[in-house]
Amino acid sequence: MRKVADCRDFPSDSKCTLTISGEEEEVVRAAGDHAVSVHGHADGPELREQIRSTLKDEVPQHA
């Protein structure tokens, strides 16, 4: 099952609208990189676990 991380689920001053979808590890890695480079979060295992805990299952658009 593909997973989704959506910045719109987390209020921020930047009003970021990025959505990342793919296999779980890909999404955690990409969302972590984004959180650090765009939102200024500190990288580390805690950030990756926080991201992992907020992932949602992707709803297929072609179902």
How do the SSEs run, as a string of H and E?
EEHHE
Radius of gyration: 12 Å
**N-C termini distance:** 14 Å
Q: What is the strand content?
A: 15-25%
Organism: Streptomyces camponoticapitis
Protein name: DUF1059 domain-containing protein
Please outline the helices and strands:
Layout lengths: L2 E4 L12 E4 L1 H14 L7 H10 L1 E2 L6
Antiparallel strand pairs: 1-2, 1-3
Helix pairs in contact: 1-2
Can you give a write-up of this model?
The chain has 63 residues and is an alpha+beta fold. Helix content is 38%, strand content 16%. It has one domain (3-57). The chain is built from two helices and three strands; from the N terminus they run ββααβ. It has a three-stranded antiparallel β-sheet with strand order 2-1-3, covered by helices on one side. α1 (24-37) packs across α2. The chain is globular and about 35 Å long. The mean pLDDT is 93.
